[in-house]
Structures are given as structure tokens and as C-alpha cells.
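Encoded backbone
================
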Amino acid sequence: MLVKLQTFTLLGINAIPIEVEVDISPGEFNITLVGLPAPVVKESIQRVNRALENSGFPPPGNRILINLAPAELHKQAASFDLPFAMGFLACTGRNRLEKLSEYAIVGELALDGTLRPIRGALSMAIECAKISRSRKKPLGLILPAENAPEAAVVEEIDVIPVHSLAQTLAFLLGDLEIDPAPSQIDEIYAKFSQYNSDFSDVRGQELAKRALTIAAAGAHNILMIGPPGSGKTMLAKRLPTVLPSFLTHESVETTRIYSSLGMINSEHPLMVTRPFRSPHHTISDAGMVGGGVTPTPGEISLAHNGVLFLDELPEFSRRTLEVLRQPLEDRQITISRALASSTFPCDFMLVAAMNPCPCGYRGDPRRQCSCSVPMIERYMSKISGPLLDRIDIHIEVPAVPFEELSGMHTGTSSDEIRRQVVAARKIQAQRFQQDMPQKETEDDLTDVTYGAPSAHFYNAQMTSRKIRKHCQLDAQGIKLLRAAMNDFGLSARAHDKVLRIARTIADLENSPKILVPHLTEAINYRILDRSLWI
């Protein structure tokens, strides 16, 4: 007897449809598994046999062949346990599983027959919705109850939460009714969308807050340079609080990445606040950008739609920093291995912090710097010029005076900054949507429901063509920029960065044109381009 079931495997963050074919024929008991299964899939046969027996079902006693199609794709993960078990039970002929063709089935079995959570439930639900649309026939998803709140974000399909093998069988036989898990998007946003920190916690540093406001408004990368204890980390951790609230499709994009690594739980099934990732400086290349025999996302992808904070930037391995160059430009990373190749999104804001010298106290009026000029030059040379070119804003964050630390004035709050950021981003969205062909806009709006990467409209992402169109200068501005290029030796990339920053400053001022004060402020945010800084 032959039975076919629908399930999924993960490739990177994407769910790939897999057809499980279970064939039982007379003969001596033997189970053969074909279709390039990984070791974890091969081991599932032992778990399934014990789970069936411990749940009160006799294991099949004939020759069994299990085929996983498409055959040329390597299959990973333990989520094949439940479809294997249902295939065994259906093939015996004693159970007529009438609903088997109406649902895709995923789940890992414990030896007592209960179900354990799996990775990538959200991606699997999105793929179910796509299959339903393409074949114009609904395809539901049966999966462990712990994963149901995450999968139920996709409202187009029926997500059936089950706790055990026996409960799954009863549902498919029609002996037990299980209501589909309800979508809880509104409740999740209401419960988890608040931040516990605020920019008003930071005393002083109003100039740094201004620079971070500009960075947030235009999605610019920023480097903060200052002595220990000046508030660089404190400022960086509060940057997500001033970014616009997560849109649903952005939330789904980011959640898919975390789900593929098993970092989502039933209590918090959807990412509704901007991620903030702060890896230690000992991180490897693969940990930063992703890797492995079967590629998995790294820190830059976990920071997608959020902030990647690199504290003590010169302490990171130079090679690790250099691998950031291409993702910072392309906002995606492709990891290629012998078995598979995967592309991960990594549209993040880079925030970096460093000391001005090895001892950390250069320019600090309170302490004497013990570093020589050659030591400072060696320290700064750990960061390559091409990487610095990709960081739009460089600012100094000096030590905070006692008067500001002990004063009662709280300074600018996150709410005030967020209002400015949201207003500036609305201007950018309107500007760049006018440049986009109508068909492309419609496609983006169609795809966001399923978590597909969508177009963003930020000044930091302007191409050279858009810079020429939207960053035109008057005669005074051209003269000022020419002088800055000659005096500071700015590269072509730094030239474009200055114009992008100036455009963002003008948007914050609601100015249709870039004026000289806007350009002057933008040039002042490129301090590492000045030879006199060292």
C-alpha cells in the first residue's frame, strides 16, 4: 500500500515542500529511507517506532520504503517524525485518514508519543499559503501546539495545534475536532511592542543624540568615538526605541530568521520590536555573517530590520570586519557551500563604538593619555578605509561633565526623537515611491503578506542616480563640498555619503532643498576623514 503526505524541510530560512511517500509491501521487516536524508532524519525511524509502540499502536511489521521527494535535495531537521508516523499508520490499512490530503504535517516526536516544537514554523505556514494560492485549494498545517501561535500569524490557512501522535491520528480520522489556532497579531503587538529604555535616561550628549536622530531618520550607519564611560553603549542600546514601529511584513521577515534558529517561543511568537544585536569581539566570520555545512543565518541577519552594535570595533578580527563590506552595500548575504547555497536578508543599521586610542583617554581633560602617535595610528589602522567609507557618520562622544550628570534636566526623550524620525521617513517614502514603476509597487504590496523582502525607501540606500536627482546643490553648496573633498581627501563613496546625510538633515528640517547649513553639518560628521584628527 502506498501513502503520500505533504511536509516541509528548511533550507536557510525558507521552507521547501517535501512529498513523503510511504510504501509497505509483504516481506521481512525492514525500513529503507531514500531521498538524501541527513543523519537526524535517518535517526527519526527509531524515534517513530518507539513512539508508536509507547502510544499503543503496533509498529508495522513488513518491508517499508520511504521516499522523500524531490530526491536531489538534502533533507534536514527532525520535523519528519510526525509525517513518518502518520504514513506508517495509514499504510497498515486499519486507519482511513480521510483528511490526510488536506494538511501538511510537521513535528518532532518524543519517545512517549508527545510532540516537541520545531524550527521554521512561520516559514512553513507561509509556504502553505503560497501552495494554497497556486493550486486554488486550501492546504492546512498540522504542527506541535507550541509552534501554533507563530504559524497562526499567517491568517489564510488553518493551523491545527496538536500535542501528541494519538491526538493527530484522532483528528485525521475525524474522531476529534480541533479548532484552528487563532491569529493573535494585535494582542502580540499590544503586549510586546513597548521598550524598557528611553533616550531621556542618557544625561547630556545632546550632540550625539542629534547624530543618532539623523542616523535613524535616514538609516545611516554610525561610528561613535569616545573615552570609556562616556555613554556610547547606552546611546546605542536606545537607538531601536526611536526607529519607526515594526510593520507587519517587517516583523514577519525578521521572525522567520529567528524561527529558523529555534529562537522563537510560544509566549512571544512574533518579533514586534526592532532587534538589537551586540556580538562579542571574539566572534568568528561564520558567526557574524552565517555559515555551516548547511548555511544558517549569522548576527547580521539576526539584526535584520534592526541594529547591529559592534562595541570596541578595533578589537574585532580584521577579517571578520572585512566580511561586512559586501552585506553593508547589498543588504543581503549569500552563503555557498557544497551541499547548498542560501541567501539571507541583512538590512540593518550598523552602530559601532571605539575608544580614541588604546588607553581610551585621548582628548579626555580628566585623565592623561599614555599613548604615542605611532600607537594611535596602529590602533586606528585596524579598521580599513573601505569599511570606514561604508559608515556614514563618525562622531566624537566626549565624557559627560558632572553638572550634566547631577542635573535634573532629562534631555531629549525617545518619543520626541521618534516623531522627527517618522516624519523624515515619510518624506523619503513619498519621494522614492514616485520613482518606482507602478507594477513594482503593486508586486511589493502583494508579497509582504507572505514575508517576502520588500522595498524600503531610505536616504542611506540612494543609488548614484537618485543622489544626482534628489541631492542637487546650489553654487555655494558645490563650492563648499569641493573644498571639503580637497581638504579632507574624501573618496567618491564618502562624497556620496555626505550628500545622503545632507539630504536626511534637510528632510528633518522639512526642507525640499539641501542648504549650506545642512551640508556643513553633514561634512562635520566625517571626522575620521580629517588627517588632523590623529
